[in-house]
Amino acid sequence: MVGLDTMSSSPNPGSKVAGTSSRPTSKDGSKKNIWSSLLDTVANGKRLPEKNLLVLGGTPDSQREFLDTFSADTSGDPSLANDKRKGKGKTPPIANQFALGYTYRDVLDADKEDTLARVSAYLLSEPSPSFAPLLKPLLTPKSVPETLVVILMDWSDPWTWVRRLREWTRLLRSVLVSLDDETKFVMEETMTEWRDRKRGVDPSSAAAGGMSNSSGPVAIPLGPGEWDEGLGIPMCVVCQGADKIEKLEKDHGWHEEQFDFVLQFLRTILLKHGASLIYTTPFLANSLQGLIHSSLGIHSLLKRESLKHNVIDRDKILVPANWDSWGKIRIIREGFDMEGVSTAWSIEIQDPPESIYQTTDENQQSENGLADEGTSAVTMFEQTINDPKRGTANPHGNTTKIEIETTDLQDFFATQVEKLEDLKAKDEKENSNQPTPQLEMSPMADEGKVNDHIGPVQFNMGGIQVDADDMLKKLRDREASRTLKKESPYAGTGGNDEKAHNQALANFFAGLVKKPGSSPRGSPSA
């Protein structure tokens, strides 16, 4: 009994031990899975939201100016320390000298403690079709909803704005069309969200943008010329250097009509793409930072900023997306043909991209054909806004062409030979009609002329260079002065008078000296 009990009881502890040894293993595995999920959650929570900026146009310097304005501190809170104002670290370098440049900026909260997002900026200066493959990898289903296209213009050459904007639009369309179906689907959703939710407008304007009834909100239908040519990516046009507006007035004679025409033209074009517009001035406060943040969906957790439009101050224009309309554009100045500009722009951007500096014959002919029909938006703009360096508007609208036509080198030399032969014949004819001048040799008696031809005569005397003419002149002057002294009748009298005067002075001073044994003159005698 005891043995059976022992045998029966002995396996139980073994099995119990085995069971207890396996249970902690299962618990450790579950704990490990829990910790890994928690760590992943924390890591995802600390991961910064990533935003993308495609900065197109401008020069390397103007692109740097844009990034400085975008990342400038606009809080104005004096309680913040200087190191917090400057940011937590050094400003990242900007590589934008060749082809596609890159840099990044961290967007900080109002207290400069928390980072709201990291913005990657891709910089491209020229709308060359060769750069299209560089832009295509930047547009993916993941990056498209977090991307904003910024096109830079400058007030130093406003007559090129529409042409540059057309080439950038053509380049973007060629890139977007070549994307895969999944990316195109995401782009369509992004445009729908951008249009319907009215991102980029202050909350009060967004609230007034739609109507509601008992069944729910009702969207307002789009007006004419709105969102006709959506690109699939939000777009913003930044016109830099608004301080040069005064220079256009003084140097080029611009008036309010020209400035209003430029503003109406740009707003009509950008309305078709649902894009925003802003004028900026260096070193002056503006709403560029708020516009970019709102367009990218970056909102401060501590300070809520509202974005308000401004169409009154001509150097501080701000037109947010989804705010503009034909009615608001028409009231700026009567007589502007918005329908014609809108239709011409829709036709013109369908062509493939081309360089703004060089155009092929086929593209030039097509543009000439559009100009003849009056359907070229670029021509309509450049006929009113002329390039002052050219004096008059180019009838073909190609104001940036730098090519010139030259003749063949041999043909040029042949024409020059003919001209030289004609000139030679004329010279021979003129010389034959004139008598040959005869030279008469006559002795030159004038000593002055001889001296002028020969020059001064010098000789060396004891190692000193002496001018003979100068020496003779001095000797003659000395002899002349001696002769005058001898011939002067007052020469002897003057000498005797001087001697008598000196003797009188000597006697006077001698009388003042007290001699031994004598008393001074005038003293009483003893």
From TrEMBL:
A GO term from the CC aspect:
meiotic spindle pole body
Q: Spell out the Low complexity composition-biased ranges.
A: 204-215
Annotated Polar residues bias: 1-24
* GO MF, any single term: dynein heavy chain binding
The lineage's top-level taxon is Eukaryota
Where would you find this protein in the cell?
A: Cytoplasm, Cytoskeleton
Basic and acidic residues bias locations: 422-431, 477-488
According to the record, the residues making up region (Disordered) are: 1-34, 69-92, 196-215, 422-446, 477-502
Its GO biological process annotations read:
microtubule cytoskeleton organization; microtubule-based movement
Which key words are in the record?
ATP-binding, Cytoplasm, Cytoskeleton, Dynein, Microtubule, Motor protein, Nucleotide-binding, Transport
Xref: Pfam families: DLIC
Stored PANTHER family: DYNEIN LIGHT INTERMEDIATE CHAIN
Query: What's this protein's name?
Result: Dynein light intermediate chain
Protein source organism: Penicillium nordicum
